[in-house]
Amino acid sequence: xxxxxxxxxxQLFEKKGFSETSVQxxxxxxxxxxxxxxxxxxxxxxxxxxxxxxxxxxxLMTQEKIVNDHSRNCKNKLFEIIYILISKIxxxxxxxxxxxxxxxxxxEERLSLIIPKRDQFRENIEKVLQEGKEKGELxxxxxxxxxxxxxxxVTNWSYQWFxxxxxxTDHEVAEIFTNMILQGIEN
Length: 187
Known about the structure:
This protein is mainly α.
């Protein structure tokens, strides 16, 4: 039942927004009582926190496998990280939108659990870029923090416009982004 409440909440938060969705909306949509909701969650914010933790923990686990795979070069690792960010929109689009849009609705205590995980995701990208720089795969003058934020900006915003059912696949978008980042757009 907890999973059902969570999944339905993600759909409602995506459609209506966190603030505009009430606990009553959630329980009405799945035909249970508020008591059932409060058996699993102490508040709507705790539910939002669970959604955030589930999303970022899954992303970190996948990313860390890529980062720690010594059989891949830096460019391949970078592509794979970009790909997971785009492919999650295909497989977990509503969760991605809730994750990026609704973080502002978490209190400081809950944010203190999410922000270090987001920072770790960013630091893992920096680690890959530093590795590429040290191995000569990337430019020696590369400003790693700025490039990292650029990668995150390009990929994280794609939840707003990327249509997994559209003409361009998630894999193709990841290839385009990776090529743009690695080669630039200059002729």
